[in-house]
Amino acid sequence: MKVDVLILTKDPNKIRPKLLEVLKKASWVNNIIIETSRPLSKARVNGARRCSTEWIAMFDDDVEIPENWFDIVSKYIKPGVVAISTPSIDVCNIHITAYRIVSEKIRPLHLRDVPFINNTLIRKDVLVNYNPPPLFYGEDILLYNYVKKKGKWIHPPYCGVKHFMVIKDPIEVAYAMWHYGIYSLYGFIKYCLAHFIIPILAVGYSHTFKTIIFFWRINVRFIIGLIKGMITKNIQKNKK
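^ Glycosyltransferase, sequence as received from the core. Prediction below:
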């Protein structure tokens, strides 16, 4: 079985060299398609329309995958399954890695039900019919919610995917999420509580109190973005 590969990037020069190296010598790769259109939500659809295979392997430009990635995820292709993605480890940020370890253990504060979309095998027919808003921040949540209505999204155990993540501006993230209704007010409160409580426990894994400072700074900016989003949306509402 061969599939087209879709890599989403602002700049092709910033694609992880190891990702390209693995893909270029893989026998399961049909064509490698690099999509540079913006924003990210639309880029996924635009790129999918350039693909010709039934399934598409979709990657962000900041991941590296093991050579047996396709062997692992393709085993989950079954009737009713429309997408498969595996967890990734943020190798450049010990704070985020520690946070995720703890958050998986504290289910009441675990907010995101979104698998790691940075390495996904997905059916083309599902993706090309997707019509998302022009969104960069939080677009993975909207995509996941859409795909789940079409079939099962499977997320197998960790298989070795590395993520070299760049932190997004929390103000812009919160603003966009409120504007597009990605989270309810309850969801935002839960998110903020998690980012105050979990970092304290995550110190046990990161072995540095800098983890607390790292996430509390993010949380403050996130709250600023939320307030900004609320004010803007309220002003727009009053103008109508």
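Residues 1-166 form a domain with the Spore Coat Polysaccharide Biosynthesis Protein SpsA; Chain A fold (CATH 3.90.550.10).
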